[in-house]
Structure formats: structure tokens, C-alpha cells
């Protein structure tokens, strides 16, 4: 801050305080006659005024810098949850404009990459079905079960497994796409899944008869619950599995509890990695393919849901699905 003096046309003496700003200078003037005979007090007032204005200017400059950063941060969080916001406005200092441009370009590339991945999965799955169908037809045309009925039965089972995996891959590629969210009765969705499992001879305790409406992607919810329920049945030591639904105005919670041996605490996050299995057996009837929980986590993240595995009160594991209300 600098002090200067000047005189006006009437001969009055003025004292000016110049305060440098971001791009301009701020000048405050006082008539010397108004200061009286207390220059120290006048200087103190000028110093206080300059300090206040300096802080005010610094706050404006900081705000000008933080607003674009807040927009980038908000968009990054939305992308992390599977949403694709509008490009961030490119404004502010040059460095922030470059950062925003880079971020917008990166988010567009990620979006295109995920779309290409989905298209690739669907294409590969579709193309694999043609030779598999030809192999199945050739096996059916072999006389006398190819001379070895047991071997032929094993080959057919393997082909059926491959076909099932291909069908699931095609379905998942559709579910991972951004589907339109619709009003869905969660109770009806869970009831359909549980009834299908019960028809296969599985014992399931179902708690949640009250209707619960939510706007979400029903295909993704069905896949997440189905995979978690199949896991609970597979590793539940042939004991009943309990499914609970809690629904209020702000939060929806689905609990799937088995009575198996449980999952060690240091591996509860690892099981969500692709091809990670607690049981190292390669058999798909015991150890599974290692993709079920990985698919659950991807679908949950894409829809803004949370899925966690927790220890049950006595024994077993609780799979907890938390779905916030979407406006």
C-alpha cells in the first residue's frame, strides 16, 4: 500500500492510499482537514481498511480458482459412480482451462473405451455361438453316442456350461450399459428371484412383504441380487439363506445372509477382484468362475450403489446392498 497527496481545484489537500489488486489498483482518498490533528489514527484506519480489502480481494481470487476445481472434482466423483456428466466449463486462469480441457477429453475417451468394451464383449459372445452350435449339432448326429455315452455326456455338459457363460456375458454387456432408470417395486423383484431359487429346492427365508418403490435399473439389481444369492447358497453349507429388505424414505438396504464358514476379514475386498476365489479348486460346481462378485461390484459402482461383505453374528457372511434414493 502506498500513500500520496494531491490538491483539488479549491486548494484542498487530499491524502490517497493506493492498494494494488489482481489487475487494477484501488484508491481511497481522504480530505486532510477531516483527518484533523491525529495522523497516527488516520494511518491506523487506512491500514485496517487496506487489510480488510486485501483479505476481500484474496478471497475473491481464491474463489475464482476454486470454483473450476470444484466442478472438475464433482464431475470426477460422478464418473467414478458410473454417471457421465456434461463437460466441465472451461473458464478461469489459463492453467485451469488446460486442466479442464484435459479432463473433458479424458472423460470422453473413457466413455468411448467402455462403450467399445461392451460392443466387443457382445460381438465375441455372438461369434462364439456359431461354432458351438455346429459342434452340438455334430455331436447329436453321431450314432450310438459316439461309442462312449459317458464321454459324450461330459462333452455335452461342458458345451452347455460354455453356452451359459456366453449368455451371461451377453446379458452383462447389456447391463453394464447405462440403462434408463424406471420406477421398480423392489419387493416384486426380490420375490421373483427368491421363488426361482426355491423352485430349485433351496431353502430361503424371505423377510420383506411391504411394497418398496425405487427409481433404478431393474436389470442391474436383478443381476446383483442373483449373484449374491447364488454365492450364499453355494457356500452356505446347505443351510437356509436369509434375505431381508429394509426400505425407508432415504435408503434401501438388502441383506443376504448365509450360514457358511464365512470369509476371512483380510479377503472380504479381495473376493470382488475378477477370478479371485477363496476355494482354489477349478471346479465350477464348487469354486465357481471367480467372476460373480466382480460383476456385482462393477454393476453396483456403475449405478451408485454400495455392496459390502460383513461377518454374521454367529457364523456365515452377510452381503449388504445399500441403494440411496435417486431424485
Q: What's this, in brief?
A:
By secondary structure, this protein is an alpha+beta fold.
H-E order: EEEHHHHEHEEHEEHEE
Arithmetic mean pLDDT: 80
Neighbour order of strands in the largest sheet: 5-7-8-10-9
- The number of strands is 10
CATH class of the largest domain: Alpha Beta
What name goes with the CATH superfamily of the largest domain?
Histidine kinase-like ATPase, C-terminal domain
What's the number of structural domains?
Answer: 3
Protein name: histidine kinase
Domain Histidine kinase: 123-327
Membrane topology: Multi-pass membrane protein
Enzyme class: transferase
Could you explain how this protein is built, in words?
With 327 residues, the chain is an alpha+beta fold. The protein folds into three domains: 2-80; 94-158; 180-324, 2-Layer Sandwich (Heat Shock Protein 90). Helix content is 50%, strand content 19%. The strands form three sheets. It has a five-stranded mixed beta sheet. A three-stranded antiparallel beta sheet has the order 1-2-3. The model is unreliable at 281-285 (pLDDT under 50).
Q: What key attributes describe this structure?
A:
Heat Shock Protein 90; 7 helices; 3-stranded antiparallel sheet; 327 residues; 5-stranded mixed sheet
Amino acid at each position: 500500500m502506498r500513500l500520496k497527496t494531491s490538491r483539488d481545484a479549491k486548494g484542498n489537500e487530499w491524502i490517497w492510499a493506493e492498494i494494488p489488486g489482481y489487475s487494477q489498483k484501488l484508491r481511497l482518498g481522504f480530505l486532510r482537514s477531516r483527518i484533523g490533528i491525529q495522523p497516527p489514527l488516520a494511518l491506523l484506519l487506512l491500514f485496517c481498511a487496506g487489510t480488510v480489502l486485501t483479505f476481500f480481494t484474496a478471497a475473491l481470487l481464491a474463489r475464482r480458482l476454486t470454483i473450476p476445481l470444484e466442478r472438475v472434482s464433482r464431475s470426477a466423483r460422478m464418473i467414478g459412480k458410473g454417471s457421465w456428466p456434461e463437460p466441465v466449463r472451461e473458464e478461469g486462469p489459463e492453467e485451469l482451462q488446460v486442466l479442464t480441457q484435459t479432463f473433458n477429453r479424458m472423460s470422453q475417451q473413457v466413455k468411448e473405451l467402455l462403450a467399445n468394451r461392451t460392443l466387443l464383449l457382445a460381438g465375441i459372445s455372438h461369434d462364439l455361438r456359431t461354432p458351438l452350435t455346429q459342434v452340438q449339432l455334430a455331436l447329436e448326429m453321431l450314432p450310438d453316442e459316439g461309442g462312449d455315452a459317458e464321454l459324450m455326456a461330459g462333452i455335452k455338459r461342458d458345451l452347455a456350461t460354455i453356452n451359459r457363460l456366453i449368455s451371461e456375458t451377453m446379458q452383462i454387456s447389456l447391463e453394464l450399459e447405462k440403462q434408463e432408470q424406471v420406477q421398480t417395486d423392489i419387493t416384486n423383484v426380490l420375490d421373483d428371484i427368491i421363488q426361482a431359487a426355491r423352485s430349485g429346492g433351496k431353502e430361503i427365508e424371505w423377510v420383506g412383504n411391504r411394497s418398496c418403490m425405487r427409481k433404478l435399473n431393474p436389470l442391474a439389481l436383478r443381476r446383483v441380487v442373483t449373484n449374491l444369492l447364488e454365492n450364499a447358497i453355494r457356500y452356505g453349507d446347505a443351510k437356509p439363506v436369509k434375505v431381508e429388505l429394509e426400505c425407508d424414505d432415504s435408503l434401501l438396504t438388502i441383506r443376504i445372509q448365509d450360514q457358511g464358514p464365512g470369509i476371512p476379514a483380510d479377503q472380504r475386498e479381495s473376493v470382488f477382484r475378477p477370478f479371485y476365489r477363496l476355494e482354489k479348486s477349478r471346479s465350477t460346481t464348487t469354486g465357481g468362475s471367480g467372476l460373480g462378485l466382480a460383476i456385482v461390484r462393477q454393476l453396483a459402482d456403475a449405478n451408485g450403489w454400495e455392496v459390502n461383505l460383513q461377518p454374521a453374528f454367529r457364523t456365515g457372511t452377510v452381503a449388504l446392498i445399500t441403494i440411496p434414493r435417486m431424485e
